[in-house]
Amino acid sequence: MRNILLLSAGRRVELIQAFQSAFAEVSPLSKVIAADAQPLAPGLYHADLAIILPKVSANNFRDELVKAIREYEIDLVVPTIDPELPVLSHLREQLEDETGTRIMIAEPWVIDICNDKVLTQQHVTKNGLLAPKIYEDSSLIESSQFPLILKPRAGSSSIGVNIVNSLEELNYLLPATQSPMIQQLVFGDEFTADCFSDFEGKVISIVPRLRIATRGGEILKGRIVKDTDVIEAVRRLLESLPMPGHSTVQCFKTKEGVEFIEVNPRFGGGAPMSIAAGADSCKRLVELLNGGVLEYDESYEDGLTFLRFDQSIVLKDNELIQGKNLD
């Protein structure tokens, strides 16, 4: 039996169902336990078991997490949001030694690079790969260089991201942008690559997804495109930035080549697309927990188009999960 704890379950119903499907195939007695600070998180109502945990920023987060790991005999903890990553990365060895569980998390230096888009760009270019240019001094930007993109150095879900078309727009938005970075706006096909590596960082799969339409930074419509240029560039990046388990890499394929804009060392919202195409990260995690050895695999199905939509859960009072709203 292998139990998995999915943190900040939120709206990640498809991911929970993917883990359940993986368990049904290889470990039917195992359970997917979903945790969230919000008792009304939809993911809680689809998991095998649901628990309320404080936010990662809370003083009692570590102690409550340890209690949950022990009570539910958790074999793998899976973070899903950016604020969890640096905390769990620094706690990983301590938690694993104390509880015997495994945390799906990269080393602190990797998390530091991924959580800072300036450091990401610097790492990419240092390793001989391409990334859009960063403008460090806004006063030196010329009118011919617009449009540009203005965004926070840290952040997700496209929050605070703006395309600016003039120096006037830039000067207006700059003070309102937290830890701003100004970057060249590139044009071309935008991809998110779903990646999987084993616990030692060996690359197992890379699945490029063409981003056709997005909402709040998360893909709504996408297509699996087995683009060899994207795959090779992402592989080179992963070899310099080991991320155990599932990760996502965002890039544009431009006339210059494959240009990287973001790296997320966790499951992304669109991960169920690559899982459905046959690159099943959930099943692979279970296989690794069972002592399996994985090799590089590109046998997923190419050319699949995915159209995502919202669904609702209708609950009676007696079906609501009890717990203080910690959101």
From TrEMBL:
InterPro entries, alphabetized: ATP-dep_AA_Ligase, ATP-grasp, ATP_grasp_subdomain_1, PylC_N
Pfam families per record: ATPgrasp_Ter, PylC-like_N
Domain annotation ATP-grasp: ranges: 121-290
SUPFAM superfamilies listed in its UniProt record: Glutathione synthetase ATP-binding domain-like
GO MF term list: ATP binding; ligase activity; metal ion binding
Record key words, sorted: ATP-binding, Ligase, Nucleotide-binding
UniProt-recorded name of the protein: ATP-grasp domain-containing protein
